[in-house]
UniProtKB/TrEMBL annotation:
Protein's recorded name: Diguanylate cyclase
Superkingdom, taxonomy of origin: Bacteria
Part of the full-length chain shown: 546 to 819 of 819
Residue ranges constituting the EAL domain according to the UniProt record: 24-274
């Protein structure tokens, strides 16, 4: 009846929903400008081994919009994934990453460093993904053995055969893979041994409460044991304190990334620091 129709109409104009839609399309338009302009940057966060030596850097995208200011990847990556803009954004990231690697590979102190790049599922499945990486490698002349792709378990949900084939193709070019945010997704343990992975990254949610939550401690030691039996490096993400590092070491974790070791910063910062 009219009352119900009225209610439905009200629901249609729900201001919260409207705000979300506006936010999404505003963000998409701003991202389009960012891709055309000069507002994107890569920051790098180091990964450390047991002896506090840096062995890798993770590239993290940073975006400063003229109107919105700094926008967090946690906010714009999901928008870019749903709009498809993650493909050109990801290509921008890959080009920059390969340029950085090319610079490092001419630099005595940096040439053994791995550069890790985050890859969304939608990028990975794009038909030109492999081709684009090949052309970045060719243009910059980098040794692809130092390029690592961070993927998440979400990639493994559908079409596993296709995923494994594509990963093997890239691995055959020398490229490494790590499984990011490990422990939060749905990867079955059976899949893991079929993937050409080099490392597992323990999700930061398990590190955060490690000192107070025995469940997290159990999860961390399980992941470490799993990594050991599959011969993968295990990296703890989100390490913020010395106490967390010590506990992680006691649990036999051998690699670390987090604010305690170093915050994400522009490449030039690390060039001076290392
Ligand atoms: P991620 O790949 O798991 O990256 C780690 C995130 O944790 C980064 O957030 C990093 O700044 C943050 N982090 C590092 N150490 C600590 C710590 O000790 N404590 C806490 N609380 N946080 C820490 P960021 O840079 O905001 O990126 C968020 C997510 O956005 C990334 O998670 C990744 O999934 C995605 N992302 C970032 N850059 C890119 C990109 O170039 N391409 C794609 N596809 N995704 C990206
Ligand atoms: Mg990552
Ligand atoms: Mg992560
Ligand atoms: Mg993440």
């Amino acid at each position: 009846d009219a009352k119900d129709a009225g209610r439905n109409t009200m629901r249609f104009y729900n201001p919260v929903m409207q705000t979300k839609v506006n936010h999404q399309s505003q963000m998409e338009a701003a991202l389009r400008r960012a891709l055309e302009g000069d507002n994107l940057q890569l920051h790098l966060q180091p990964q450390f081994d047991e002896g506090h030596k840096v062995f890798a850097m993770e590239a993290l995208l940073r975006w400063q919009d003229p109107d919105m200011g700094w926008v967090s990847p946690a906010d714009f990556i999901p928008v870019a994934e749903s709009s498809g803009q993650i493909v050109p954004l990801g290509e921008w990231v890959m080009q920059k990453a390969c340029q950085l690697l090319a610079g490092w590979q001419h630099h005595a102190a940096m040439k053994e460093l791995i550069l890790a790049v985050n890859i969304s599922a939608r990028q990975f499945y794009h038909p030109h993904f492999v081709e684009h990486i090949q052309s970045c490698i060719a243009h910059t002349g980098i040794d692809p053995h130092y390029l690592e792709l961070e993927i998440t378990e979400s990639l493994l949900i559908d079409d596993l055969e296709n995923t494994i084939n594509k990963m093997n193709l890239l691995r055959g070019m020398g490229i490494r893979f790590s499984l990011d945010d490990f422990g939060t997704g749905y990867a079955s343990l059976g899949y893991l041994k079929r993937l050409p992975l080099s490392s597992l990254k323990i999700d930061q949610t398990f590190v955060r409460d490690l000192l107070s939550d025995p469940n997290d401690e159990a999860i961390v030691s399980t992941i470490v044991a799993l990594g050991k039996s599959l011969e993968l490096k295990v990296i703890a993400e989100g390490v913020e304190t010395l106490e967390q590092e010590e506990r992680l070491k006691a649990l036999k974790c051998q690699a670390f990334q987090g604010y305690y070791f170093g915050r994400p910063a522009p490449a030039e910062h690390w060039l001076e620091t290392l």
